[in-house]
From TrEMBL:
Residues 600-638 form a coiled coil. Keywords: Coiled coil. This is DUF4139 domain-containing protein. Residues 245-276 are annotated as: Disordered. It comes from Polyangium spumosum. Residues 249-269 have a biased composition (Basic and acidic residues). It comes from the Bacteria.
Length: 639
């Protein structure tokens, strides 16, 4: 007889964040078991809730297999036996304990001493040794034994452990939660959460002129250890809030203040599922996962314009929008199996656009555009496109809120070729005078000419997208942008039948370079004067400032050179003075002494004028710098 699985699974809510909310309801008579995987048990016990909705019975307890390794648990209690040696192992574990053996010679009761085995012609013979009294040992042929009763309570407990842990070991990673019911109940509700693989949505867009049939399929996996049969399946992209746990039975909490918040979530979820205000059956207190919230969105990075438009639309509409898909009928999926479930089939009106981007090749992309009037929010997913029954391409469909525009780029148009050429011009724009330096401003204009060649028999419109950088403007003479964001601008170009059309877009921005005043050359100042963009009086002040700084630099260089020369004179003077202290006045030394005295007098005559020149050069350099500072203050005030 199979185990009683209790009420059937009626509803499963799969979250894109990797959780499945399971709802079971129905009648039950007596206790039942819920099968789970070992890794799922912790999540189940944190979220499990059971109550009797209708009936006289009541739930009295929830039992579960401990999430331990059953083989390790048996080995720890010395109850793990090799195949074919179970009887020997049980007898070995019962040594010193009292048992009652029933065989062909009647019942025999005694304390187990051990197990004996001897070879024989018809196979080995096995005996059980029992101490039946003081000084009495009974040898029992196990071939005649039909029943062994364990009288010792501790031995009975070991047998229970052997059975329960053996059952868990035989079940592999399977575990069970046992719900104990007293009496018959007409309607019992069981809700819990298990980890699940996130579902994936893909689309099919079947074109027929301006109409298209949009089909959505969800790839879902059954995360349970049992078959799903005729269940209501709901897919949600809302982000659930769940407690986390690092081990069984220990839930991470920030503090006691979290309990009211968890209780509020639990109560809110009960109301959402039509549950009573109180739990009438005994159940462990856990956080029942609330399938409400906001999921983090990931936009299509391949399309800069579509990304920004989608972001703006999502920001305006997503907060109050339903985030669920519901299968159109009951769903059946085998245990741990997977299935493609149709979740949407709607007709939409589509329009085709040709979109040219730099770097995407000469042929523009063919883009299908439609308004999302399906009544649901479209998730991100792959979309296969069929035109009049023919497969024509596949691409990504980005997320689209209800009423927002959706776009699918699925192929190229070989009948249209686009090219772009650019030319850059830079002109002087002005000067900004600051205390720390001079800022030269230049206006840069880059003219982009996009040429569209149409080989079709009919005229076509091509949307030209140009990327836009911060601080730059994009303008086209006599043509307004079709759409514009901070990252891209689009223009529409109409190309005649078997003809060409072009558009010229000017991208303009300002560049600036900081220059030190002393580095400005007179030729540069004259070039600025010739541009006519700076007042002549200010350039005159700049010329005077530049001359003063240049002269101050030159004077300072001369002062540094003279100062080094003076240091050399002092060094030579000191050496000569040391020689004079040791030379005598007569003979060859006297002649050398006289020459040194003459050189020393000449050095002393040079030192005075050199020191005076150093002071003059320093004063003149300081005066030039003060003059430059006054001119700089005047320029800064007039900026």
């Amino acid at each position: 007889m199979g185990r009683n699985l209790g009420p059937r699974i009626r509803r499963v809510v799969l979250s894109k964040e990797g959780l499945a909310h399971v709802e079971r309801r129905g009648s039950a008579d007596g206790s039942f078991e819920l099968p789970f995987g070992r890794a799922e048990l912790g999540e189940v016990l944190r979220s499990l809730v059971v109550w009797v909705e209708r009936g006289e019975g009541r739930a009295t307890a929830l039992g579960f297999d401990a999430p331990e390794d059953p083989d390790a648990a048996l080995a720890e209690r010395k109850l793990r036996f090799e195949p074919g040696a179970t009887l020997r192992g049980i007898v070995h574990a019962a040594r010193g304990r009292r048992v009652r053996v029933s065989g062909s010679d009647g019942p025999i009761e005694g304390e187990v001493l051990g197990f004996e085995e001897s070879p024989g012609g018809q196979g080995p013979r096995r005996w059980l040794l029992l101490r039946t009294g003081a000084g009495h040992i009974e040898v029992v042929d196990l071939a005649s034994v039909r029943k062994i009763e364990l009288a010792d309570p501790a031995l009975q407990g070991s047998l229970d452990v052997l059975v329960s842990r053996g059952r868990a070991s035989a079940g592999g990673d399977g575990r069970a939660v046992r719900v104990t019911l007293e009496g018959h109940v007409e309607d019992v509700r069981v809700l819990y959460v298990v980890p699940a693989a996130p579902f994936q949505v893909s689309y099919r867009l079947a074109l027929s002129g301006a109409e298209a049939r949009l089909l959505a399929f969800a790839l879902v996996q059954n995360p349970l250890e049992e078959d799903l049969e005729d269940v209501e399946l709901v897919l949600t992209s809302a982000q659930p809030a769940a407690a986390t746990s690092d081990s069984f039975g220990r839930v991470d909490r920030r503090g006691d203040d979290d309990e009211p918040e968890n209780a509020t979530k639990l109560e809110r979820t009960r109301r959402a599922h039509g549950q009573p205000a109180t739990i009438r059956a005994a159940a462990p207190l856990g956080t029942l996962v609330a399938l409400a919230g906001r999921a983090q969105e990931r936009l299509d990075e391949a399309d800069t314009m579509d990304t920004e438009l989608a972001a703006a639309e999502l920001a305006a509409a997503i907060a109050a929008e339903p985030r669920e898909w519901t299968a159109e009928g009951p769903v059946s999926i085998p245990r741990r199996g997977a299935a493609m479930i149709p979740v949407l089939a709607k007709s939409v009106r589509v329009r085709k656009e040709r979109l040219f981007r730099e770097g995407a090749g000469p042929n523009p992309d063919l883009v299908l555009c439609f308004d999302n009037d399906t009544g649901v929010r479209l998730e991100e997913g792959r979309c296969a496109v069929y035109d009049d029954g023919r497969y024509v391409g596949e691409s990504a469909l980005g997320p689209a809120a209800r009423g927002a525009s959706a776009r699918v780029t699925f192929t190229k148009d070989p009948g249209v070729r686009c090219s772009r050429t650019s030319r850059r011009d830079t002109t002087f724009a002005g000067l900004v005078f600051e205390a720390g330096g001079l800022i030269e401003q230049r206006r840069v204009e880059e003219r982009h000419v996009v040429c569209v060649r149409n080989d079709h028999l009919a005229a076509v419109d091509v949307v030209v997208e140009l990327s836009r950088k911060e601080g730059r403007t994009l303008t086209a003479s006599g043509l307004a942008p079709l759409a514009e964001t901070s990252r891209a601008t689009r223009f529409r170009v109409e190309a005649p039948s078997r003809g060409e059309a072009s558009i010229e877009v000017t991208e303009a921005w300002t560049e600036a370079t900081r220059l030190a005043y002393e580095s400005v050359a007179p030729s540069q100042i004259e070039a600025w004067r010739a541009s006519g963009r700076v007042e002549a009086s200010r350039l005159d002040e700049l010329s005077g400032l530049s001359r003063d700084l240049e002269q101050a630099t030159s004077i300072e260089a001369e002062r540094v050179r003279l100062d080094r020369e003076l240091v050399d004179v002092f060094a030579r003077h000191g050496k000569i003075a040391e020689q004079l202290a040791v030379l005598r006045d007569v003979g060859p030394e006297g002649a050398l002494r006289a020459r040194y005295v003459s050189e020393l007098d000449a050095m002393q005559q040079r030192i005075g004028p050199m020191e005076a020149e150093l002071r003059r050069l320093k004063d003149e350099a300081d005066a030039r710098r003060r003059s430059a500072e006054r001119a700089l203050e005047a320029l800064a005030r007039s900026s």
